[in-house]
Amino acid sequence: MNCVELQQSLAEVEEGNSTEQRAHLRACPACSALVKDLSLIVAEARELQAADEPSPRVWNSIETALRREGLIRSPRAARPPVSSFGTRWGTARWLVPAAAMLLLALGIHMRQQSVPNQFARQASVTVPVANASDLNDDDLLQEVADIAPELKTQYEENLRRVNESIRDAQGVVDESPNDEDARRSLMDAYQQKSMLFEMAMDRSLQ
Amino acid sequence: MADQQAWGSCNMASKRAAKLVAIGVIVAGTLVAESKKEYHFSVGPRAGVSVMNPYGSISVKPSLNNTVVVNAFLHSDKVEVDNNQNGNRVDIQSHLLAGADADSGRVDYEVLVPADASVTLHSNTGSLHAEKLHGDVSLEGPGAAVDVRDVSDAHVHVKTMNGAVNLDNIQNGHVEVDSLSGDVTLRGVTGPLVQVVSTSGRINYIGDFGNGGEYRLTSHSGDIEATIPEWTSADVSARSVRGEVHDDIPLQPKNHTWFPLDKGRAFAGTMGRVAVSSTVVLRTFSGKIHLRKRSEKQ
To answer: Per-residue pLDDT tens for B240-253?
Structure first.
């Protein structure tokens, strides 16, 4: 089992580890540290359970206020008006934030792992904004037209130029994958496009 | 005949009167619509001041004491100025009301801040100006022309789409300029990091590249020109992938570079004293690069 397989298997395992996982964790300090961190998060999340449970008086107060406002009509004697997430799910409710944190940590960790792997596989460029090329130019221009129509022509022209620069730089990178300058040019071009989008979405336009 | 003349002169007089009334109404309307507002804030050392202005200029100069003074000139009643102080931070924002456009929503700001304040300015269309400060300066705007001068020991960050950028006398600065198509001129700009990235704008550097900093000027299709005195100490590399490079200053050639030194397309070498030399990287894809020697007149 390698690091990626272990990390993928973590989400499927609730308690303990399989033999393969244990063997990998013994050999791999990075994965071992990751699992230790995740275990700590889950343990800390359990500790929060008792402290954050609101008292019944809170629910009663809410119920009274809602009835006074006319928002609810039929009183519920046994249960609070808002069904308690904690009551219904018991201890399992803490698995939701814990799982979210776990996925977040996993995502960050896998991203960190994947960058050197990409470099190892090929000498081509890794652009800093991975999804910049997927950004929809038409949507951007439509957004600008809606918010600041007087700037649309300028955005259109600059978008055309920056797309050209990406194509140019990509062409050189394809020809000479080991050309550091070309790779940097491509990165710069993507960053410029990213900046254009940032500007278009900036709050001063809105 | 006499009646006709009398009628004609009477007609002209009433036309003139009507014109005067119309001009008076326009002037009065303008005076009513345009208004000035002034705000004062007391702040401590290293305050933060932010001005967000969709349409109009912002000019920032140092104040004499720990006070932020904001003079706002509103061009119509379709725009308001929101101001907020939170501790050592002052936020000013032009608030466009319904129906406001680039003309009626325009506000021009003149702001005085303590010289050590950090300043963030944002405008879509107006000019952005900051001078005589030694706190960090961040200026941003798609069409904003940017002018920063006499700033020291500070970060200067500029982002524009097509506005021209002029930086003058920035000492010991951490300077980063991103511009898509506006021309960028740096005059007397030195510091540990001076970086300009442009897509199609022209970059013009006039100065001596300081001591021991990193200077990286990059434009995809714009020309790059650096004019430096002969006594500059720098480790220079220049390369244009599709364009030309010219070098008026003799450099000590380098044996190893990690890019091909195609004649006319690239050069690399050192000049002056190695111990204090700065690293200078000039890069363009299809523009021209010219390293010029500064004449005594410049």
So the answer is: 988 999 998 888 88
B216 contact A CB<8A: no
Contacts A180 to B, Cβ<8 Å? 258-259
Answer whether B49's CB lies under 8 Å from B117's CB.
Answer: yes
Q: What is the DSSP string of A145-203?
A: HHH-GGGHHHHHHHHHHHHHHHHHHHHHHHH-TT-HHHHHHHHHHHHHHHHHHHHHT-G
User: Which residues from chain B sit within 8 angstroms of residue A196, using beta carbons?
Assistant: 161, 180
A180 to B241: CB separation less than 8 angstroms, yes or no: no
Burial of B25 (0-12, 13-18, 19+ CB in 10 A): exposed
B141: nearest CA partner in chain A: A199
- pLDDT > 70 fraction of chain A, expressed in percent and rounded: 49
Cβ separation B181–A158 shorter than 8 A = yes
**pLDDT tops 90 at residue A7:** no
Q: What span, in angstroms and rounded, lies between the C-alpha atoms of A43 and B43?
A: 45
Q: Residue B230: what residue type?
A: E
Amino acid identity, position A120: A
Cβ within 8 Å of residue A19, ≥6 positions away? none
Give the integer Cα–Cα distance in Å for A181 and A184: 5
The residue that leads in pLDDT, A1 or B58, is B58
CA–CA min distance B199, chain A (Å): 6
pLDDT of A88 higher than 50: no
What integer is the mean pLDDT of A148-171? 89
Model confidence pLDDT, tens digit, residues B63-91: 998 999 999 999 999 999 999 999 999 99
The residue whose two tokens read 């960090």 is B136
Q: State whether residue A185 sits within 8 Å of chain B by CB.
A: yes
A151 CB neighbours in chain B (<8 A) are 124-125, 142-143
Specify the pTM: 0.68
